[in-house]
Amino acid sequence: MKYIIVGLGNFGSSLAQKLTALGNEVIAIDDSMEKVEHFKEKVTHTIRMDATDELAVSDLPFDETDIVLIAIGEDQGSNLMATALFKNLGAKRLISRAINPLHKKVLEAIGVDEIVHPESETAERWSNKLHLKNVIDSFELNDDFSIIEAQVPKKYVGKTIKELKIREEHDLLILTIIQREEKTTQIGEKEEVDKIEGIADPNVELEEKDILVIFGKNSSIDSFIGEKSSEENQDD
């Protein structure tokens, strides 16, 4: 996977380093030479650039980049300008950081694909969400172990937990299964609600919309999920 991360503040720099460590190619951009120099040994590529300068930004390899993430958090105006510019230049998948509720509404109007809230979402969670196709959320216990929520990979639909031999072959533990159901509210609107099954029954047949809550070593989770986000782009 190839990423462009704009803004090397706490969130952006942490995400850029984690995605690099996972084997991805990351171009990290900031207008501070001090930050660019500081992270140049920890991120694939670091570039000093004004992300609101259309002439400079247009030279970036958009055709080869899977995801652009605008992580600017200190300057709302620069965030919006950079987001709009990268949108106009044809970023394949554009994610931007929301600073407040009004800012979020403007980003939605621009048409970003996804919005980040670093105050409540960590770089660890986003690195897993971006790196692996099916991961919905994750909680990193330490450098080696995590608990994740992941959609059932297509190749496992219709099989039981027992048939998959997840404990024996992958050294992972499925804590529970979350089933997403559609219900009608009192005012007639449709909404999705999560039904948690409790301790996972090894004989339950997995369905396409099921969400697995998995505990285990990060490398084992990576191997089990086995579908990198880039495959999603190839399928489109």
TrEMBL record:
Alphabetized InterPro entries for the sequence: NAD(P)-bd_dom_sf, RCK_C, RCK_C_sf, RCK_N, Trk_Ktr_HKT_K-transport
Pfam families named in the record: TrkA_C, TrkA_N
Keywords: Ion channel, Ion transport, Transport
All residue ranges annotated as the RCK N-terminal domain in the record: 1-116
GO biological process entries: monoatomic ion transmembrane transport
RCK C-terminal domain: residues covered: 134-230
Lineage: superkingdom: Bacteria
PANTHER family: KTR SYSTEM POTASSIUM UPTAKE PROTEIN C, POTASSIUM CHANNEL PROTEIN 2-RELATED-RELATED
Name this polypeptide is given: Potassium channel family protein
